């Protein structure tokens, strides 16, 4: 499965969105196991953009993990900074996915919220 390609502008926007995120998956001493890959896939299905913490001091191994994750899960590498990997994959839009159905059903507010100052 090839990795998903994104351009520089998309990468910049995704890095900005990922700034406030906390890591949702951790890769420990056992490396990139099947269980970790399943958890990453599950997190990508529900969040699209995730941070992964790697407890490893070898930068080359972290690069290999990022490449393997993106290749096996058809995701795009967004950023590798320190021990954090940021990965993005658009959520599937099929009817079986309850998260996409929930996103379609939510509606935006037509007017801004009222604050204490707006009642004065």
From TrEMBL:
Keywords: RNA-binding. This is YhbY family RNA-binding protein. InterPro entries: RNA-binding_CRM, RNA-binding_domain, YhbY-like_sf. Residues 92-120 are annotated as: Disordered. The keyword RNA-binding applies. SMART domains: CRS1_YhbY (SM01103). It comes from Dentiradicibacter hellwigii. Residues 4-100 form the CRM domain. PANTHER family: RNA-BINDING PROTEIN YHBY (PTHR40065:SF3). The lineage of its organism: Bacteria, Pseudomonadati, Pseudomonadota, Betaproteobacteria, Rhodocyclales. The keyword Amino-acid biosynthesis does not apply. It comes from the Bacteria. Residues 104-120 have a biased composition (Basic residues).
